[in-house]
Design goal:
The protein has 468 residues and is of the alpha+beta class. The protein has helices at 82-86, 133-140, 144-150, 161-164, 174-219, 353-361, 363-372, 385-389, 398-441, and strands at residues 9-11, 19-21, 25-28, 33-37, 54-57, 72-73, 79-80, 98-101, 109-112, 117-118, 122-127, 168-171, 227-229, 237-239, 243-246, 251-256, 274-276, 291-293, 305-306, 311-314, 316-317, 325-326, 332-336, 341-346, 374-377, 380-382, 392-395.
């Protein structure tokens, strides 16, 4: 669908806004809404946290708005006392306040559905007569580039309050704000439905690929071959002629790498040295771009260079990714193994590296790895060498491993292509959604004449929408 432009524009003087409709206001957001910082009352005073009745929105509640879709926040696990509120800089904010996360999940925003206080991790906007909470929320969702530009900090990104006070936006008349919000609610809901469809398809394709791999590396390709009990409960039956061994018996060398303090950017040429990040093996595919450049003053370790057919396994990651395994098919002489990765080099006459990688990614194996992973935080779990080396391994003859490897690659290639297409469409839809929001709140399209379509007028093929 396409929309007309406004008949007349004026220069806003702001790079991200550019021209805005001539009859719109524009300026710093604090000219139209009162900005207040959140605050955390002292934890050293128990009376501030006893008999608590006032909802207090904290970073642990950010999950409610992380998706960027939820508009109204009603619940919080934390509460603070009236005494705590009265004796600190914290304030009970009215319902309708727009909250903006300025630390974790920087830029995520929502509208308070009832009076609450917030921690100092939020900037809070109490809207006046010239801007509605719903419109301001929508405007914030068009400011991703601004939030990125303003973020400070190398590890924990933050936007500071003085910078937030300089946020600038366009403010149409109130009746146009309502129209823009209604238009975007309707149109983004349609796009979100399509995005959800693509995400479901991606998940189904991932499940199908996982099933193909899991069956092939534990049952083989011939459904008529005699089977035997593997003796391992979670493996079940395997082909009768397969040997049940352990990974340690097919390994020639087992190493862990080195993680010096590196630059944040990856190498740009083969003349530069880099250290692999743990994410280089996520989801079973080796990604050489997941590396950090070695500073020039540090000498590289040639013994840690990555070679084709190295089996790389993450030893520390989230529960879903710890133990992820991938095999580079070419050598990377300038990339080094990190200490967050194990490297296995196999006995070439016994085991195929890619077959082992497929086995390590099979659903049955993944369950065992996740059970044995340890760590205090779910965001960083670890597996030891023993978890890998003592893993039971159904070992077909080497020639059969190669046939299974090739067949799995053949069958999963088409699934990966389909998943890639779905992922690309999802990305385009997300870009379309962002572009639509930006176009509406900066006045690049005129939606004043838009009306919600009747059910009979909604196109059956909603994914045929034209780009803004």
């Amino acid at each position: 669908m396409s929309f007309p432009k406004y008949p007349e524009y004026k220069d806003s003087g702001v790079e991200w806004l550019r021209e805005v409709p001539a009859h719109w206001n524009h300026g710093k957001v604090r000219y139209f809404a009162k900005l207040e910082s959140g605050h955390t009352p002292s934890r050293n005073k128990p009376e501030y946290w006893e008999n608590c009745t006032i909802p207090w929105f904290t970073l642990s509640d950010v999950w409610q708005i992380r998706s960027g879709l939820t508009k109204v926040v009603y619940e919080t696990k934390e509460k603070v006392s009236e005494l705590g509120l009265a004796n600190s800089s914290a304030r009970l904010l009215p319902a309708g306040t727009v909250i903006l996360s300025r630390t974790a999940s920087v830029g995520y925003s929502a509208i308070l559905g009832k009076p609450m206080a917030t921690t100092q991790d939020f900037a809070n906007w109490i809207c006046g007569k010239k801007v509605s909470p719903e419109y301001l929320l929508t405007a914030f969702r068009a400011m991703a580039s601004e939030f990125s530009r303003m973020m400070m900090g190398s590890t924990h990104k933050t936007i500071y309050m003085p910078d937030i006070a300089e946020l600038y936006c366009a403010i149409p008349p109130m009746h146009e704000q309502s129209k823009i919000v209604a238009f975007l609610d309707h149109e983004t809901a349609r796009i979100d439905a399509l995005i959800a469809e693509q995400q479901r398809l991606i998940e189904l394709l991932k499940e199908k690929r996982q099933a193909v791999i899991s069956h092939a590396v534990t049952k083989g390709l011939d459904s008529g071959v005699p089977m035997k009990d593997s003796g391992v409960e979670w493996l079940g039956e395997v082909p009768e002629h397969w040997e049940i061994t352990r990974v340690k018996h097919i390994v020639q060398t087992f190493e862990q790498g080195w993680s010096p303090q590196c630059e944040n950017n990856p190498v740009e040429s083969e003349s530069e040295w880099g250290v692999l990040k743990v994410g280089c093996v996520n989801h079973g595919r080796f990604d050489s771009q997941e590396n950090k450049k070695l500073p020039g003053e540090l000498s590289p370790r040639f013994d840690l260079s990555i070679k084709a057919n190295d089996v790389l396994i993450s030893r520390a990651n989230t529960r879903e990714l710890v133990g992820s395994c991938a095999v580079p098919t070419v050598s990377y002489p300038n990339l080094m193994l990190s200490d967050k990765l194990f490297r296995l080099r196999l006995r070439e006459t016994v085991a195929d590296p890619i077959f082992l990688a497929f086995f390590m990614g099979a659903s049955q194996t993944r369950q065992q790895i996740e059970l044995e992973a340890t760590g205090a935080s779910s965001s960083m779990l670890n597996i030891g060498q023993g978890t890998v080396l003592e893993m039971p391994f159904p070992c077909p003859p080497l020639e059969e491993q190669a046939r299974i490897r090739d067949e799995v690659i053949k069958q999963t290639w088409s699934l990966l292509n389909l998943a890639g297409e779905a992922l690309e469409l999802k990305k385009r839809l997300e870009e379309r959604r962002s572009a639509l929001i930006s176009a509406a709140v900066t006045g690049k399209i005129d939606v004043r004449g838009w009306q919600p379509p009747t059910r009979s007028s909604i196109p059956a093929e909603t994914d045929q929408m034209e780009a803004v």
